[in-house]
Amino acid sequence: AAIQNTPSSFNIINAEKGGFHELRLQFQAKGIFLADKQLAVWNSDTIAVMDVQSSLVALPSTTFQCTAKDVALVSQTVITLENDKVNMRTLQGTVKQQITVPEMEGDPCAIHVNRNWLVLATTNNFLRVYDLSKREARQQYLAKGIELEPGHVLSEVRINVNGTRVAATFGKSNRPDSLCVWDAESDSLSSFSFKTGLTEEQQLEEEAERATSTGARPVTAAARRIERDRSRFCLPSHKTAALQWDEVDPRFLVVEARTDSADAGESYVMTALATSEFGLLPHALQPLSHNTSRLIGISVPNVYFIKNKEAEDEDSRSDRIVAKLLLVRTLQEFAGIEESDASSRDAMLNFCLFLTLGRIDDAFKAIKFIRSEKVWQQMASMSVKARRIDVATVCLGHMGEARAAAALRRATSRGESEKERCALLALYLGMLDEAESLYINCRRWDMVVKMFVARLKWQEALKIADQHTRIDAKRLYFQYAKSLEEKGDISGAIENYEKAGTHIREVTRMLCRDYIRELEAYVRKKREPELQKWWAAYLEYTGNIDGALNFYSVAEDVPSIVRILLQHDRLDEAIAKAEESNNPAAFLIVARNCEGIGRIEDAVNLYTKANAVSSAIRLAQENDMVDKMATLCLMAGPREMANGAAFYEDIPGHAQTAVMLYHKAGMIGRALDVAFRTEQYTAMDLVTMELTAQSDKTTLERAAEFFLKNHNFDKAAELLAMAQKLPEAIRLCEERNVRMTEKLTNLLTPSKESFPDLPTRKSILLSVGELCLIQGSFQAAAKKFAQAGAMVEAIRALIRSSDTARIMAFAGIARNKEVYVMAANYLQTTNWREDVELCKAIETFYNKAQAFDHLAGFYMSCAQMELDETGAVHTAIHALDEAEKVAMKARENSETLKRVKSYQAECQRLFKIWRSFDVDPTDAMRQLRNAQVGPYLNVPETIAVLVKGLAHENKWKDAWSCIEELVKKSGTSKPTQFVPRVFLDQIADEVGQKRLDLGVEEGESDEGEMEEVDFSHQMKRQGV
């Protein structure tokens, strides 16, 4: 290799042996090209050719004038790129051949020579390959045009060792970000973009997958591979730099992906494989250190870079520096097997190819003869980078790594993702950076923290813990503090113990032996109560009582102050301090002291203030303090109340207190026992108020018995019902006429759990309903009858309540013909003439019950109402027509039908007379005088109907004639019995006659507004 040091000096380096020789020039060089044994150096107008000896000394050979953009050497020929052509010159500068390109391809802009092959790139993005092995350069393949986006250009071109493939980087002129490979033999072009991390073929596959995929379709293996490659190779903030083919293998190439600045992230070198069958296949990414400056070559297993001048000259774990200017890095795929033979290297490259393609069987066939454990380990590492867990598992078997294989199986059984398993495997293979990157990528921050801790990267671990795993932060701070303490960094340990929240215990432990003054200063500085308590305890231990009291006081640790005062026989001060602070723990300490010295009264009071009521009760009971026991027991829990009640039970005259305490303790049965035995009736009432249906059955029965003896039958009935003694409770209600309240009625309702037998439940419900009915609770009675299934009895009870809304609602859901009929019959007793909804309900109920006789009768009532109120004969006739239709549904020639038809005939005759007034009033009056008496309308009633009807039509003269006839036909009856007085007076006024002098009869109504009444919903449907 030849590396430029200064504008006028170079170093010629032997990369294998490590030797170098500095070459100084007489002019400033623009470029340098090193062939096998020759070296060409040029500037803007001069080219110098030198011979390179085995000792790396360069001897001047020839110099000639030439203006060249780029220069290459091959087989005693100097190749120069000059403006719009490429010249093949002798070593003396004579042009022996000139290579030109068609105008459509543009001008030559870049050349590259590898062995006997030349690639030429033009400004219009065409590529040409020439064979230089003959005397003259010959074009080997047809020129290949590359279609690029507008504004994109070819940046750098390289041809492989056998001239079959050309690689080029392209993109915007100042930021190329893509790579393409032209396979000249198959004339195929493959490309890859760092923006997407995918090849062109993968992008097309992804678009096709997206176009055909549905939500229910599972993810295919191809889609998973595309996503895996995207996550590995996507570097949107990077641009391509140098590009090199391997010196031996024509398939293997390397390209740099660098960032514009160190702040933008790491730079990488990407290895790739190119084949005629599969195109361009990205293989792996390796991060570059800041020591590298530029990629200059690759010879598997090594990659060669120019060393950054600012970097140190020492070798690192992954890099080796040669002659202070050349940096050699071993590819990760070959780490540990650098010295392997050519066959092993070829097998490894084939393995890489098939592994990238996902052809596992072919991958293992390529390496089946390899026995080296290092090779298998390296292949396992490659499998991890390729995210191929299946391949890595096989490699683990060949390596004999049983622990790693077992850990992998456990991770699979736990349902961990592929990335998590890859990271775990990377840990076992020693690939710590790869494991860290994978765990960060899948957000397994707990594992990242563990790795940092294991590698003693405490600051990174703590930063991750603070940001992502706060649950581990305090534990990590504690571990870090321990580590610092072991190293003797006391201040650092104190800081991290504080962050861990353990400084009260750990800092005092750490400083109390050899740093007591520092500890005191630390306590005074922190001013934390817990630290002050610890320091006070230390002073107390060392006998400094005043200092201890001072620090206890500052820490507000009253119990400790009281304890020290008592130890020094200062009881009054201790009591005063406890009273001042009102601290329960201090009261307890003083109380125990008072008990020990026999001050029982003070002890009981102090135990009470300390909320140690059990101790106060014990002490009061031992000293027969009867007056205080009850109060203390009420302040305690159920157990103490029960003990206190037993205490009072044995003392004559305190039975009521015992009952009260048993009651408060929840021991209702025991309270009742004591109340029964001592005849505490008032207490008994209070106890039973809290009895419920969930109380003990025996207790309920005994309480009921008690109330029966005391003639409190209402309470006894409730308690019997709670005890599910329903027959006895009902019998008591019947015998003692107990009022059936809503609460008692609900209690007497049997449940399926207590009375599984259906007939028994029905019998009880009927009995409860009868009781409610007798006492006038009609709605409650109806509810119980309905629950028993006695719908008829239920509707009868509701009818007796006269609650029309409830009757209609109940009938609507009863599904019982008899109930329908009874409800409709009841509704006819209401003011149905004024309420259309009631009319609809009557018709509906009769229809549901198929009670057509009843419905026909209802329509006849409607007809009669029309005749009586408005004299609307035609409306009455329509009502009777409806009645006829309904009656015919019942039974033909039935009595109802006969009555309807008879009524119809009378109304028809009346209607004929009415209409005759329009044609011949005299004939109408004649017909009226000769009208026959029918079963429904006599003569006065007939005349009255005509009067009302004629008045409604404003036929006042005819109406007055009918009134005169009515007066004649009424006999002993007055006309007002048939026609309201208001009609008579209004008609007389309209015809100018004197009002009839009929007198005023008792009960006669002068109300009679001429308003039409809607007789039924059925008639409205007919459009009458």
TrEMBL record:
<dbReference type="GO" id="GO:0035721">
    <property type="term" value="P:intraciliary retrograde transport"/>
</dbReference>
<keyword id="KW-0677">Repeat</keyword>
<dbReference type="InterPro" id="IPR056168">
    <property type="entry name" value="TPR_IF140/IFT172/WDR19"/>
</dbReference>
<dbReference type="Pfam" id="PF24762">
    <property type="entry name" value="TPR_IF140-IFT172"/>
</dbReference>
<feature type="domain" description="IF140/IFT172/WDR19 TPR">
    <location>
        <begin position="358"/>
        <end position="845"/>
    </location>
</feature>
<feature type="region of interest" description="Disordered">
    <location>
        <begin position="200"/>
        <end position="221"/>
    </location>
</feature>
<dbReference type="InterPro" id="IPR016024">
    <property type="entry name" value="ARM-type_fold"/>
</dbReference>
<keyword id="KW-0969">Cilium</keyword>
<feature type="compositionally biased region" description="Acidic residues">
    <location>
        <begin position="1001"/>
        <end position="1013"/>
    </location>
</feature>
<protein>
    <submittedName>
        <fullName>Uncharacterized protein</fullName>
    </submittedName>
</protein>
<dbReference type="InterPro" id="IPR056155">
    <property type="entry name" value="Beta-prop_IFT140_2nd"/>
</dbReference>
<dbReference type="Pfam" id="PF23385">
    <property type="entry name" value="Beta-prop_IFT140_2nd"/>
</dbReference>
<feature type="region of interest" description="Disordered">
    <location>
        <begin position="1001"/>
        <end position="1024"/>
    </location>
</feature>
<feature type="domain" description="IF140 C-terminal TPR">
    <location>
        <begin position="853"/>
        <end position="966"/>
    </location>
</feature>
<keyword id="KW-0853">WD repeat</keyword>
<dbReference type="Pfam" id="PF24760">
    <property type="entry name" value="TPR_IF140_C"/>
</dbReference>
<feature type="domain" description="IFT140 second beta-propeller">
    <location>
        <begin position="1"/>
        <end position="307"/>
    </location>
</feature>
<keyword id="KW-0966">Cell projection</keyword>
<dbReference type="GO" id="GO:0036064">
    <property type="term" value="C:ciliary basal body"/>
</dbReference>
<dbReference type="GO" id="GO:0030991">
    <property type="term" value="C:intraciliary transport particle A"/>
</dbReference>
<dbReference type="InterPro" id="IPR056156">
    <property type="entry name" value="TPR_IF140_C"/>
</dbReference>
<dbReference type="InterPro" id="IPR011044">
    <property type="entry name" value="Quino_amine_DH_bsu"/>
</dbReference>
<dbReference type="GO" id="GO:0005930">
    <property type="term" value="C:axoneme"/>
</dbReference>
